[in-house]
Amino acid sequence: MAIFLDLVFLPFWQALACRTSARIYLCGMGLAMSVWLGGCQSDGPQDITGTISGNPQEERLSPAEALGRLYDRNPDNKEVALNYAQALRGQGEYAQAAAILQRLSIKYSRNPEVLAAYGKALAEAGRAREAAAVLEHAHSPDRPNWSVLSAQGAVADQLGDHEQAQAYYQTALKIAPGQPYVLSNLGLSYALSRKLPQAEAALQQAAAAPDAGRVVRQNLALVLALEGKFASAEEMAQRDLDPKEASANVAAIRRMLAQSNTRKPIQVVDSGSQAGGMVRPSSE
Length: 284
Prior knowledge:
The two termini are 24 Å apart. This protein has helices spanning 13-20, 24-37, 56-59, 63-73, 78-90, 94-107, 112-124, 128-135, 146-158, 162-175, 180-192, 196-208, 214-226, 230-237, 243-259; one strand at residues 3-4. The chain is an all-alpha fold.
């Protein structure tokens, strides 16, 4: 779920917490995210495009397979390579996408679009320090790109620098106010910083946006569960998941928190449909 793929909306969240911090709380957060991610699918990339040839065999190929055929025929075509890499990222093939974009970046070493895609693929592949170096050159102070800033924030979170990550997200939001996937990344970053009320506020705002997808809503459900707002978490999760699946996700996190020695016992703050009501601030 999590790098929204084109924004680096963190499919690596469940691993980064334990890898980047010795604090048990963050490892618990990583476990909670892993539990939650197991129950939902990513929104997926929104800008995958592909050209399917008139060959009947190729028309039966998936978009990624068709783009792979095009790429094999012309690996130096920038648009084909970018689209193929994006399709691979959508399928979770981050290492292969990074390899394709690395090759492309040699030819287009000053192209911001190529460098942005390459940096995001590196981040998704878990190569955070390399990603940080590449993304630095994917835009400039006089022409900042909010999507790249969000990716830089995700990388900073992966490296454990949550304060820097949050600064990147806030800068991105100045360029794209109310952008739900940046807000969702910000919310998860607050959660990793043990700032659950701020995490919920950011995710409530993200979920209220008209163009927010299921990833945003499921991240909000996760944070609500971590706060002990189990009824609200389950209600939110059921917007996209089967009721049994949503209930199982919330129950798993509830058990994890109950067994944890790193925080006080969870107090259920909402036990009915009216408790813990959602905040819906403006999405702009």
